[in-house]
Amino acid sequence: MAISLHHIVIDAHDLPGLARFWAEVLGWRVLSEREREVVIGTEPGAPVGICFMPVTDVKTVKNRLHLDLTPGAGPGERDAEIERLIALGARRVDVGQTGTESWTVLADPEGNEFCVVRAKATLIG
Q1: Which of 78, 7, 86 lies closest to 42 in space, CA to CA?
Q2: pTM of this prediction?
């Protein structure tokens, strides 16, 4: 028996707003929008999507799980991508970095941390 990843689920206060933010970040689209669930992905048959579910409590601690995003490998692409994400509504956050990391920690409009890492090709080997 095999099992595969279906959705990554993110709790949210503003489901449509947070879904639109992440769709714009990833170049995806909203696939399904209901009162208590919004799903984004590349296309309806995509193997994995992100599902936004409602919560009433406020986020108070660092995420136990987060997304790592990789921009293109060209010169300056990482910095340009970070600036684009900030313009979309992300913000820089401090979770204890030393300043020498190969990643930058940001948070989405509801405070969920994620990282922009250097291109994957530079991490292998």
Answers
A1: 7
A2: 0.89
